[in-house]
Design goal:
- 2 copies of one chain form a homodimer.
- The first copy, chain A, contains 14 helices and 2 strands.
- By secondary structure, chain A is mainly α.
- The first copy, chain A, has one domain: Orthogonal Bundle (Farnesyl Diphosphate Synthase), CATH 1.10.600.10.
- In chain A, strands 1-2 form a two-stranded antiparallel sheet.
- In chain A, helix 7 runs antiparallel to helix 9.
- Chain A is globular, with a radius of gyration of 18 Å.
- At the A-B interface, helix 2, helix 6, helix 7 and helix 8 of A face helix 2, helix 6, helix 7 and helix 8 of B.
Chain lengths: ~290, ~290
Amino acid sequence: MKTEFSLAAWAARAEQALDQHLPKAEAEPRRLHQAMRYAALGGGKRLRATLVYATGHVLGDAPERLDALAAAIEMIHAYSLVHDDLPAMDNDDLRRGRPTVHRAFDEATAILVGDALLTEAFAVACRSALPTERLVEIVGTLARASGSIGMCGGQAIDIAAVGQTLSLMALEDMHRRKTGALIRAAVRIAAIAGNADGAELAALDDYANALGLAFQIKDDLLDVESDSATLGKTAGKDDAANKPTYVALLGLEGARSKLRLQGEAIDQALQRLQRDSSALHAIGQWVAVRQH
Amino acid sequence: MKTEFSLAAWAARAEQALDQHLPKAEAEPRRLHQAMRYAALGGGKRLRATLVYATGHVLGDAPERLDALAAAIEMIHAYSLVHDDLPAMDNDDLRRGRPTVHRAFDEATAILVGDALLTEAFAVACRSALPTERLVEIVGTLARASGSIGMCGGQAIDIAAVGQTLSLMALEDMHRRKTGALIRAAVRIAAIAGNADGAELAALDDYANALGLAFQIKDDLLDVESDSATLGKTAGKDDAANKPTYVALLGLEGARSKLRLQGEAIDQALQRLQRDSSALHAIGQWVAVRQH
């Protein structure tokens, strides 16, 4: 049986879940809480939260059950953007079409906003009404995906790689950590919440892995093909910063062809699920055609 | 029945637990992992880990059961020091008698080291073999204590307070968040692990609250009374940075008297426990007489 879904409705639902689970702007310390809300609310593609809801949908789970997890993973994502934008890291002024947190507030506040969003994400996840044995597995999954062999490790490799020529394998290793790990975690935590069996977990992980790569290849393509106004962040900055990208390594046509291959890998992984996976399929389509 | 204990042995045990639970130095990305180990190992008073073991000891828990929690809370503490020392925050060059992480490595690495230590702390806590319903409560307690109304919030208030005259109440509110919250969490997570009842939780929380205040008052006193070589960090920096302290507000004698009052509050709280609480008492003594 096919059930209705809307990616836009899930993204809006994630925004509401964030609004509800973030500290209130009027609670002390107010400036920190206002900056946390500035960083986490008002924009963003909500890809990770949408993946949580979509995976739940495929497994027959109601979105209400997943709100805390959706908010938690978007808070982790928002923290990573705030810290990546810092002067000592990518030194970026623009994010989602607005000044970055350290520009809108100040650098010390931006460091604390990232720290607090990351920490509160675990507090929010713990508030989820899921069975505790699954919740422990979910929190551990989130932490490993964001930690030193996951997202933090990917950013460390990224920083060390500026100005270097990476092999395709090294570039993929970096992206698997930097953006791929949290995208895989989004699917996996919803799969754990939805009691997926071993074969389903494996198929979903293959799906998320291909999706994460597709997302990054498209990001590299957009950096070349688009402009800052459409992107909501500085366009052309990879090339300006001499960063290794799929376009730099494979050329425009090579990168586009690799993106199509990920689309095929996504289809194959979803076929193995033997469920109505149209929601996850739609996210795969969207990732490949998005304009920002 | 009185049982033997050694604060020094617990501190050494925490060091071993950290060594075991931190990512290995030879695992990729190596520079990040080496910097994480530099930040977390080799020194430190291990007050928070010792509180975990001592609380367990008072409640009849073996230390083996608490190693992951002891490592996790020291990782959270280490992360907070790395970020507090950053140029945009306290801009400190010396910590535990060695160059701070951003001096020994670089600023981007120091930001990532803090992020990764914080994140991995939750992964480590989840590895604990405690019953999952207690583990979820413990992880939530750690996250709330470290988050925006706890440690991060305290640091935000601290930064905003530089150069300002604070009331005693505002100073205490700041310290209750900045250092007190994690000290209370150390006692509380071990109390949850040890299945303390409501009255015991309340007595232990009052103990930890007084201990946290005593720790901070002593810190302010040491900043005035000691030298950098003994402290292992820059002495006299509170006054130089025009930071509000107990000494600035109450004078030397006033601060010493307030420290004695916390000692009495500690004794009273421990009496309510109706257990052999000599281990927690010894930590209270140590906090008041320490030289660094």
